[in-house]
Structure formats: C-alpha cells, structure tokens
Amino acid sequence: MSFIEIDDLEVTFRAKGRLVHAVRGVSLSVERHESFGLVGESGSGKSTILRAICGMAPVTAGSIRIAGERVRHGRAFTRRVQMVFQDPFASLHPRHTIDRTLSEPLAIHGIGDRDAKVNQALEDVGLGRGFRFRFPHQLSGGQRQRVAIARALMLEPEILLLDEPTSALDASVQAEALNLLSRLREERGLTFLMVSHDLAVVDHMCDRLLVMKEGRAVEQLDRAALAGGTMQAEYTRELFAASADRLTG
Amino acid sequence: MTTPLLEVDDLHVSFHTAAGVVEAVRGVSFSLGRERLGIVGESGSGKTMTGRSVLRLIRPPGRITAKAMRFDGQDLLTLPERRMRALRGSRIAMVMQDPKYSLNPVMKVGEQLTEGLRRRERVSRAEAKRRALAALEAVQIRDPERVFHAYPHELSGGMGQRVMIAMMLIPDPALLIADEPTSALDVTVQAEVLRILDGLVRERGMGLIFISHDLRLVSRFCDRVLVMYRGRVVEELDATGLDAARHPYTRGLLNCLPRIGGDRGPLPTLQRDAAWAE
Ligand SMILES: Nc1ncnc2c1ncn2[C@@H]1O[C@H](COP(=O)(O)OP(=O)(O)OP(=O)(O)O)[C@@H](O)[C@H]1O
Ligand SMILES: Nc1ncnc2c1ncn2[C@@H]1O[C@H](COP(=O)(O)OP(=O)(O)OP(=O)(O)O)[C@@H](O)[C@H]1O
Ligand SMILES: [Mg+2]
Ligand SMILES: [Mg+2]
Questions:
Q1: CB contact under 8 A, A172 and B101
Q2: Which helix (H) or strand (E) element contains residue B176?
Q3: In the prediction, which pLDDT does A249 show?
Q4: Which of A9, A164, B22, B217 satisfies CB 3.0 to 4.6 Å to A62 for a cystine?
Q5: B104–A contact, CB cutoff 8 A
C-alpha cells in the first residue's frame, strides 16, 4: 500500500450543459517521503488532480486514498495536506496583509508562538520583515508566489501538493525555494506531489513522474529514464526534445 | 537612423507607503525598434513596473517620472488620459503576468475577446467570433468553441495565459509588452506561442518587449536582452548570447539552474552583493 493512492480517477466538470472531462481514468501512487512529479500539456488535468485531492473538483469516478483511507476533507486533512496553488494572486486574500495570511492558519488551529513563526516563514522564502504588513497587490508576481509557499508550510503538513511552485521565479530565487523544499522534505519527512512544466525542475526534485495529455496518463517514468532520454511515448519524447536547453553540459 | 518605436529615458517608479518609499524602478533607459527586446531579472527587480509604466498603468500611490517616454512620436508622459486609453489595447497591448486576474471574472472569454474588435472595427458579431476562434486556435487551444463560451475560472493556468495572448493579438498592435507570457506553458505549446510572436515581429514589424525570468529562453528568443537588478538595468546583452555576460548577477544566475541529469545536491545560490544595486 502506498501513502497516496489514486485509482482510476475521473473528474468531469459540468458547465452550462457541456461536460468537460478534465481527468479520464488516471491512477498513480506516491510512497511516503517520496517526491512525485506531474508534467504534461497545458490543460491536461494536472491542477485538477491536485484540486481533487483537496476536495475542490467534481470527482465522478475512482478513489483517492491517503495512508489507506479514503480522504475526508476536514480540519485534520488541512493540517496534514497543504497546497500551493498555481495562481498565487487568486489564492491570496486581496485585503489581508501577508501577516494575516500567514498567521491565520495558526490561529485557527490554536497554534502559539505566531509572531516568531511568521518571521521565520518569511525569512525561509527570502522575504524580509519589511514585507510582513504589505498587501498582495504591493508585491511582485514572484514575491506573491513565495508568500503562497510560506503559507503552505505554516501548519507543518505531511504532504505538500505543489502546483508550479517556482514557475514565476527567476533562477536564483527558484534555487533558494527548491533548496528550502528539499531540506524540509528531508528534515520533516514530507511527501511531495508536484506539478511543473520544467523538466529540469522535475528531474531535480522528483524520483518518479507521470506524463499527462488530454486528461490521460501517457507514461510514467523514473528519473533514470528521464535523464537517459529512454521514454516510450511519442509525446514524452517531444517534451524531452523541446527541453534540450535544460540538459547537463 | 530612423526614430525608434519606443524611447524610454531615465524612468523612475516609486511607491510612497506607510513604511517608507519603495523605489521599484530607478533610472531605466532603452529604446525599441521593430525587434524583440527581452527584459530579465530577479523577482521584484522592477520588470513588471517598467512594462506597465509604458502604458501608464501604475496605480496610486505609485508615481512615474522620466526624462522622456515616447511612442511613435507621441509623448506618453503628457498625453491626455483619453488618448492614452485609446492607445491601450489597440496600438500598444500588454499581456499581463496574472492572466486570470486580469481577465474579467464575470464575463465569458468570447465576449472579452470580441468586445474590443466590435467596438473599434465595428465588425459583425459573426465575423468577430470567427476571428476570436482563429486566435484561440493559433495559440493551440484544443477546443476553441468551448473556451469561447467559458468563464476565466474554467480555464487551466496555461489556457488563461494563452487567452490573454490571443486577446492582445487580435487588434494587431504596433507594440506588444508581454509579461511572463509563457511561464505557465509546457515546452511544446511555448514553442508555438514564441513562433507566433516571432512571426508578428518579422512579418508585421511589431515591436516586442518580452519580460521573463527565464534567462535561457529570453537569450535564445530575443535580439537584445536587458538584465535588471533592484530597479536598474545592470547589463545589456545582444544576440550573441549569454556567454558574453559579464555582470556577476547574470553569470551567477546561470549556475543556479537545475539540469536534467544533474546531481541532486542543493543548487548553488547567489551571494548577492550590495554593490550590484548601486
Ligand atoms: N471549473 C471548471 N469548469 C469547467 N472546466 C474546467 C474547470 N476547471 C478546469 N477545467 C478544465 O479542465 C481541464 C484541465 O484543467 P487543469 O487546470 O487541470 O489543467 P493543467 O494540466 O493544470 O494545465 P496548465 O498546465 O495549463 O495549468 C481544462 O480543459 C480546463 O478548461
Ligand atoms: N503597490 C506597491 N507598493 C509598494 N511596493 C510595490 C508595489 N507594487 C510593487 N512594489 C514593489 O516594486 C518592486 C518591483 O515590482 P515588479 O512587479 O516590477 O517586479 P518584477 O521584476 O516584475 O518581479 P517578478 O518577477 O516577481 O514578477 C517589488 O519589490 C515590489 O515589491
Ligand atoms: Mg495547472
Ligand atoms: Mg513581474
């Protein structure tokens, strides 16, 4: 039994009579302490899978289990599983200061020492204390994304669902964010399920990855197959070929 | 030499906040012809504010000052707001960094795509729709008809980005400012979007400002690249590429990148030097 088990997941949105089959029978499993990558075409259902785990997408078939149990979405789940959303602007409350955004989850879960924890979290993601009382619109795109990462870490979850966590960051800040995530995974034994369109980021962070296209799983690869370019599916080969500038050397 | 399409001389953008003054842009100058100019730089270095300044889209308490800012012979610093509005979204278009936030959440994608077209060019509803669907198809949207009738929250991150690009291309602008236009796209779709932008520069003589944090992408795609750090341009690179980069920030950036097949130890990080911001 794996830590996270997704079996034959289907997600179907209903929009004005139209059905949108966003995820069409995808299965994957993630071991405890593993870091698992999701890559694939834009619109192929990657974010939808993460949202389904959090109970934020209409699952029409299949199952999602964590540690052997079907997920139930309540306080215990929030404590255990946190998500960094792809769109940091939409996920930060526009009229809450960064301080409030970071300290509120602690307050809700009755956790003390909030002041020090907020300062530490800001420092961890490379934002000085000067940012603490700003509003989201007073931050650049990458600064907002770092606040979103900091918020997900506040409750010290076991599982992090990361949706393009560094796609708005330049190389230097990305390196700091990825190093932070790897260090925390090591120290706290976290499990990651991570979406990225940058194969180099996935290669650096993930042990295995699933390639998606049009709501379906195309192929699952381990890191050696990715680095060695020994993928089977045509689509994966195209992705790899278009990532030539991400190779070593 | 012919006069450039856009000239920016000594641009400053500052925000007076309760906690003090934030100088987001500190003396940026450049000129742009019918070419691809890249702007790269660290998160928070002032790329977006530079782009938005050209359209005078800095919200109060932000303030723009410059010695000169001219587009196609018009003085952008003194142009009445009414004429500025007429420029925006027609002759100068900008793809915003937060596409889903910049799209109107309560209006269908199709209405947003056709609105400007119908207002400016007075084309029929059917013709406007035909052109909108063609634009969606060009940016590799798989199901243009569905997306035409969808609301922004029903799109994936990369689809929102492509809708925004489609919307800015419909009016055939003379200058396009694209702020991280491909950051949410997979590499194959990204290649297609770049091909479209490239075609507009080559075939229609559009000027393009391509803002991105991805140094490798920008140096491959653009004719010239400005590297920003803490509100200033610290280096300008031409098409010969990154090997010629001299500034320690630019050179340091390249070392921070993960690579396919690289070892998985901690990535090198930049030791920032206070002198870089001088
Ligand atoms: N609320 C919704 N209503 C209707 N359709 C939706 C909704 N949310 C997502 N979709 C559709 O589901 C499909 C998958 O979207 P998803 O966001 O999972 O893609 P993605 O793989 O994350 O893409 P990207 O890399 O561009 O972010 C898309 O076709 C999208 O339009
Ligand atoms: N309303 C505001 N009040 C105070 N500071 C602001 C405001 N808006 C932006 N800033 C600051 O201005 C600086 C430049 O922001 P800008 O959005 O131009 O950065 P950027 O280079 O586009 O970064 P990114 O790559 O992260 O998007 C940032 O440090 C940001 O925090
Ligand atoms: Mg997504
Ligand atoms: Mg920006």
A1: no
A2: strand B175-179
A3: 58
A4: A9
A5: no
Tell whether the model's pLDDT for residue B278 goes beyond 80: no
Which residue is closest to A179 within chain B, CA to CA? Answer: B266
B207-211: strand order across its sheet? B92-95, B175-179, B207-211, B36-41, B224-229, B232-238
Contacts of A50 (CB under 8 A, 6+ apart): A38, A83, A161, A163, A193, A195
Chain A neighbors of B103, CB-CB under 8 A:
none
**ipTM, 2 decimals?**
0.92
* Residues A231-246 pLDDT 10s: 999 999 999 998 888 8
- CATH number of the CATH domain containing A50: 3.40.50.300
- Give every residue of chain A whose pLDDT is below 50, as ranges: none
Calpha distance B28→B10 (Å, rounded) = 5
What does the alpha-carbon distance between residue B157 and residue A57 come to, in Å, rounded to a whole number?
15
DSSP-derived letter for residue A131 is G
* pLDDT confidence of residue A209: 97
Is residue B184 lining ligand 1, measured as CB closer than 6 Å? yes
Closest ligand to the CA of A169: 2
Amino acid identity, position A147: V
Contact B186 A146 (CB under 8 A): no
Please return the burial class of B176, using the count of CB atoms within 10 Å of its CB with bins 0-12, 13-18 and 19+: buried
User: How far is ligand 1, taken at its centre, from the CA of residue A22, in Å?
Assistant: 6
Contact flag B257-A171 (C-beta cutoff 8 Å):
yes
pLDDT tens track for B129-175: 999 999 999 999 999 999 999 999 999 999 999 999 999 888 889 99
Q: Do B267 and A146 touch (CB under 8 A)?
A: no
Is the bond leading into B61 cis (omega within 30 degrees of zero)?
A: yes
Minimal Cβ distance to A200: which of B188, B258, B269? B258
Question: In whole angstroms, what is the distance from residue A35 CA to residue A204 CA?
Answer: 10
Selection from B234, B236, B262 nearest residue B248 by Cα: B234
Instruction: Convert the pLDDT of each residue in B234-263 to its tens digit.
Output: 999 987 777 788 888 888 888 888 999 888
Residue of chain B nearest A40, judged by CA positions: B186
Q: Which ligand is nearest to the CA of A139?
A: 2
Domain extent for A183? 4-248
Name the pLDDT band for B38 (thresholds 50, 70, 90).
very high
Closest CA to A226 of A204, A195, A249: A204
CA distance B221 to chain A (A): 13
